[in-house]
Amino acid sequence: MLSIKKYAAIDIGSNAVRLLIANIIEEKGKPPRFKKSSLVRVPIRLGADVFLKQKISKHNTERMLDTMQAFKLLMKSHNVEKYKACATSAMREASNGSKISAQVEHETQIKIDIINGEEEAAIIAATDLQSYIDVNKTYLYVDVGGGSTEFTVFHNGETVTSKSFKIGTVRLLNDIVKKETWNELEEWIKENTSKYDKIDVLGSGGNINKIFKISGKALGKPLTYFYLTSYYNMLQSYSYEERITELDLNQDRADVIIPATRIYLSAMKWSGAKDIYVPKIGLADGIIKSIYYDTVSSNTQ
Questions:
Q1: Tens of pLDDT, residues 44-73
Q2: In the chain, which ranges are continuous DSSP H helix?
Q3: What is the reported pLDDT for 282?
Q4: In whole angstroms, what is the distance from residue 250 CA to residue 254 CA?
């Protein structure tokens, strides 16, 4: 007996807004399979408004409404049964975040959950992450966003601790991350990883996915600290325009990729990790999983 359901996840980040549509394939006696069907990404960069002016501009509010309307139509075209929309750092900190969320719901009927950093880390941890984790190893999981970065320590397959820091690519681009925040992060990483003999980093986010793709490495193979350092230095030797024309990066990727790489390298340096694995998962994948398992648990009650 085969059943295929279609769910969608909307991830409203500080750099981009994404719609992920996935097929959930259920076969009797087998675990469910989650297969990506479509991914649409719109680089609205809400964080550039919020982290500098504390509110989302009229222009970006209109773009957001247009995007949500488009997502609604795409979900309808794909016959999506259920969806969940989650907003992170930028919407959370915007003085008009709740107002815009209500406006989106009124005009498009899309309800947005504004989640905190801990909820974000928990949703991501519920993804396919477990299938990438060797239960005999220790990992520092680093999910870099535009407004914040979530860090989780895994040891023997279990979550030891996790914390969200207001260090993100859009914040760094606008030079609004205080030295104290970096110091606090360094202290937290060292304190929570020093007791382990060997640690690897797991990295997620659009930027590390892009670097991994460019590296040509086989899925499941890590990037080394040495490789990431030399790539970081190479990126800095190009101007923003050259990163678009010569390195073939999208214009909304060509600037944030440098601060993102800096965050991953800092995490590797402070934890003593020599390798970073890139499982290619993120918040949207976690949202799809959470819809599925919430539905399953409510059906069995």
A1: 999 999 999 999 999 999 999 999 999 999
A2: 46-53, 58-77, 89-93, 97-108, 117-125, 129-132, 169-173, 179-193, 206-215, 225-236, 240-245, 257-271, 283-300
A3: 84
A4: 6
**Residue type at position 45:** R
The pLDDT, as a whole number, for residue 126 is: 72
Closest to 177 (Cα-Cα) out of 141, 143, 145: 145
- Rounded to whole angstroms, how far apart are CA atoms 114 and 93? 10
Please tell me the distance from the alpha carbon of residue 149 to that of residue 89, in angstroms, as a whole number: 10
CA angle 230, 241, 88 (to 5 degrees): 75
**Burial code of 12-21, b = ≥16 C-beta within 10 A, e = fewer?**
bbbbbbbbbb
Give residues with Cβ within 8 angstroms of 148, minimum separation 6: 14, 88, 89, 117, 120, 164, 165, 166, 167, 168
pLDDT, tens digit, for every residue of 161-187? 989 999 999 999 999 999 999 999 999
